[in-house]
Design brief:
The chain is built from nine helices and ten strands. The strands form two sheets. A seven-stranded mixed sheet has the order 4-10-9-8-5-6-7, sandwiched between helices. It has a three-stranded antiparallel sheet with strand order 1-3-2. The radius of gyration is 33 Å and the shape is elongated.
Length: about 250
């Protein structure tokens, strides 16, 4: 009994309200006098307690003399309270956005994201493995033999580490088009791209690796989880995908 009363009080009822509601759950229905006697609520307090429960939607009245009371089903009450709470949060949330968002945007902010310069084939491939293993939904790859000479290793990483049911699109240049047959056997969408000036990998629109080619003889790339940069990379890839060469 005490545990049930505590549960009702956690849901917002006072001690008297919890006792009255629980009593009606057990009794089915009753008049003020019987509810007072069974619950232990002083008779001087029972009418105000029952009225407050009616107002808050916990109980209803039943026609007759003397007036009788009946508990509403717990599932109905809980659903009503949840829906009312969601609606109230929505109203207050919209007010917060309306009043505070302009201040936030006017003040500006420093976005905390990472940008890394990757130097050397080893570190580029290591970062690629880490990123591909985390992919859940989408993977976009644009690859040219001229910009990234370790293309065989990268394709092997893709085939060895990629999860199933990931939406994959791969653009290759003319030099690498022989890989398309291998990729298609694994169910990946591969196409020959048009004029591509670089390469890159986009993971779930959360991370991007931009392949820069060799600079002073050292293969280099940029990795970032910055939303702006990954979005730019995504837009560029989609442009390349739309401009890809038609199949002969």
């Amino acid at each position: 009994m005490e545990d049930r009363l505590k549960l009702l009080k956690k849901f917002g009822l006072t001690s008297y309200q919890a006792k009255a509601y629980l009593t009606l759950i057990i009794m089915g229905e009753g008049d003020a006098k019987s509810i007072s006697r069974t619950s232990g609520i002083p008779y001087a307090k029972i009418h105000s307690t029952l009225l407050s429960l009616i107002k808050d939607g916990w109980i209803i009245t039943v026609e007759g003399r003397p007036r009788r009371y009946k508990a509403k089903p717990p599932i109905e009450i809980v659903n009503e309270k949840i829906n009312r709470g969601i609606e109230e949060m929505k109203i207050q949330g919209e007010r917060i956005i309306r009043e505070l968002q302009p201040i936030y945007e006017k003040t500006g902010f420093e976005e905390r994201s990472e940008v890394m310069i990757l130097r050397g084939i080893g570190i580029i491939l290591e970062r690629t493995v880490n990123s591909i293993r985390k992919v859940n939904k989408t993977l976009r790859i644009a690859l040219t033999g001229k910009v990234f000479k370790a293309h065989k290793e990268l394709i092997d990483i893709l085939l060895s580490n990629l999860k199933k049911k990931v939406d994959v699109k791969i653009l290759l240049d003319e030099e690498l088009k022989d890989y398309l047959e291998i990729l298609s056997k694994y169910g990946f969408k591969g196409e020959v791209g048009g004029e591509m000036f670089g390469g890159g990998i986009i993971v779930d629109e959360d991370e991007a690796i931009i392949l820069l080619g060799e600079i002073l003889g050292t293969p280099m790339a940029i990795w970032s989880n910055n939303k702006v940069l990954t979005n730019i990379a995504k837009i560029y890839f989609e442009y390349l995908w739309e401009m890809r060469k038609p199949k002969s």
